[in-house]
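Bumping with the actual sequence this time:
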Amino acid sequence: MSKQKLVIILLLLLTVQATSVFAVQRFPKPEFETGYIQPETQVPSPRTEILAVMDVVVLLLSLSVISWIVLKKRSRNGVFLMSVFSLIYFGFYREGCICAIGSIQNITLALFDYNYILPLTVIAFFIIPLVFTLFFGRTFCAGVCPFGAMQDMVAFRPQKLGSRLNAILGMVPYIYLGLAVLYAATGTDFIICRYDPFVGIFRFNASFSMFVFAGILLLSGIFIARPYCRFLCPYGVLLNWVSRFSRRHITITPAECIQCRLCEDSCPYDAIDFPVTSRNPESRQVMVRKLMLICTLIPFLIVAGGWTGIRLHETLAGVNGKVKLARQLLDPATLRIQSEPFEITAYKSSGKSQMQVNEEASVMLKRFYTGGWILGGFIGLMFGVVIAGRMLNIWRTDYVPNKGTCLSCTRCVDYCPVKSDLSKVNT
């Protein structure tokens, strides 16, 4: 992309952001009708609008700087300094919100609930990192995401996990993403925000359980580099997909690989693909059998996953407020206890009949039935894709970063003895 086009895109984004009216209401209204007074929506103060615009401007500038550091300067020290800045600004100063990771839920809810007011700031934080990833790889992960920055600073003794364990643990983000979309689409909960292990630390108000969870992640991060980024982050799934089509991406060497093998153990994230040559070529018959197996396995996994999702849809719907209330009303033991649940108290003050509650719960169960099928099919598809990737050998002659899983941290660059373009040296 030319510099002129990049400047035009940035100016357009800033113009839209600066001229918009930012909404205060970011979450859906409570389910009950009385007993709670919904505050009137007020126009944010100029200071609030300025902060929102400033967040987007800082995000754009940070992504531009880190992309330049990764692709042009190829500097690990520069990435580290940028990570420190992002941790301070997006982490402790802006308290981890708005973040690109949690914006998945806001975007999903806005698609399924036309009454939900979606601030343009959330749209910007969701889209801008994806756009930069499409052109420059996962530079957002390298030094802009405060969650990744915090984990990166404790990765003192990262150990290799092996391709098999990486593949198994790498399925967790797909499951997490699917559940987050399902619960947001049904208006049930924002589970990414609810179980965020780092925002409580940024705000110094983490509950004991969240503090323990964050502590476990950071302690394990000493030996398993960025465990949240690699094995939990749902936004990382989207970045993984988009980065595979990136126009430019970090390379281990600035020129042709000289096969020195010094970079083999340099990546703590196991994101370097080794050369695959014709020393052990597969026969045409073997390749055909593999393709036939993959074409049979993936549809089977999709159907099996969808069937499993349908079987679990009532369990998945159990945390939804409407379904939970209907089940409590049908349980005599709930009505006999002295301290009734909050949902029962709200129901009594709402004026709804039990039949209305049951009808609402029935509608929600149907949504979870459909959502369970889609969720299970999606997970089955991802399992099939992972298995297919392990079965197929892609021809490679050099050591190259995996464009999907590489976090553009530039650690591998320091291991390469080629420090300049060989073509320029020869001339």
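The tokens above came from a reply further down the thread. The first helix runs from residue 3 to 19.
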